[in-house]
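Need Membrane metalloprotease's 3D structure for a figure. Predict it.
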Amino acid sequence: MFKFKYALLIFFISLVSVSCSSDNDEDDGNTPGIDKTANLQGLGDSASQLLSDAEFTSMNIEIVYVNGFAPSETALANFKSFLEERTFKPDGIKIGLRAVSSSGKAPFSIDEIVEIEQETRTAYNAGDEIAVYIYIADGKSDKDEENKLTLGSAFRNTSMVLYGETIEDFASRPNAPIESDIEAAVLNHEFGHLFGLVDIGTEPQSDHKDDDSDGHCNVPNCLMRASIEFGSGIIDEIEGGRIPQLGTHCIRDLQAAGGK
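Structure prediction for Membrane metalloprotease:
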């Protein structure tokens, strides 16, 4: 059972901003022959296991993408660096990619994403290796509105989704960051929720929770803020691969939970 889903959102009003939302959903994930229990827990429940080497010394990230929506090498390199910077995995972090056909279900409800995970996920915790599943969809979220677009969602302890079509559409807008930078920002932000940020499995070491948005940071410019303005200032910061970073408060939280 999982408790929360956090989604990275883009709002188009007078300025453009990024934030996340939450939902609830449940799924038993029963499949004969494979013990999936450890990968069907609440969001943030595996934070310390992802961060430290106390139980798992390596990480296996399975990225399943719909044909035509493969993540860029630049985004993946940034993503892996982000993980290596924050986790203790002496036996390494591997990222595997696999293409699948379209499900034809877009726009997607989170229940449909859960069904797709059941059908396409093959990597689960094994021995001293923890597994994470990332699905890159060929459509949009069914919760999108005219001024609110969902880029990605973390919805279980080792599961998240990116909405590839929405990312492509946003990257094509005038003055928007390049697509690989948006991909990296979404990957890093949503994995921050898997790390239990903010206060969804990892205990805050200081008062930096956003009281108006569960799971987010109130420190300016932090990767885990619910709202990051995409005005000229933030565009300048993102350009050239300068993806928003975790603030010191979030880093201290991860260090206290077993990370770097």
